[in-house]
Amino acid sequence: MSMGTKDFAAITGSISQGIGGLRSAGAAETVNQFNAMSKAALEDGALDKKTKELIALSIGVAKQCDGCIGFHTKALKRLGATDGEVAEALGMTVYMGGGPALMYAGDAWNAWQALKD
C-alpha cells in the first residue's frame, strides 16, 4: 500500500466492529431494521443487484463516505463487477458531482483495486 492510500479493508472492519458495539449497547433494533431495509433495497427487480451496488458506490463517492466506498466495492467484487463497469459508474459520479466527486472517485478506484482480488 502506498503512502497516503486509505486502507478500506481496515475502515470497513472498524465500522463493522462499531456497528456491533451499537447493536449490543441497545441499538439492536435500529441496526436490524437498517439491515432489513438494505436487504429489501438490494433485491433483484427492474435493476439487478450489481447495478444497484454501482449506484450505491456512486452515492457513497458523492457523499464522501469512506465506509460506503469500502462496503460497496466489496459487494461489487462478490457480484462480479468489472473494471469497466466500476470505472463508468465512477465517471458518471464525477460528471454529476464535479471536483469533490473526482477526489472521492479516485479513492473509490483505489478501494476497488485493493478489495477486488
From TrEMBL:
Gene3D superfamilies, alphabetized: AhpD-like
Could you confirm whether the keyword Oxidoreductase appears in this record? yes
| GO molecular function per UniProt | peroxiredoxin activity
| InterPro entries documented for this protein | AhpD-like (IPR029032), AhpD_core (IPR004675), CMD-like (IPR003779)
Pfam family of this protein, just one? CMD
Carboxymuconolactone decarboxylase-like domain segment(s): 29-108
Give the UniProt keywords, A-Z: Oxidoreductase, Peroxidase
Report which superkingdom the organism of origin falls in.
Bacteria
Q: What's the protein here called?
A: Alkylhydroperoxidase
Record lineage: Bacteria, Pseudomonadati, Pseudomonadota, Alphaproteobacteria, Hyphomonadales
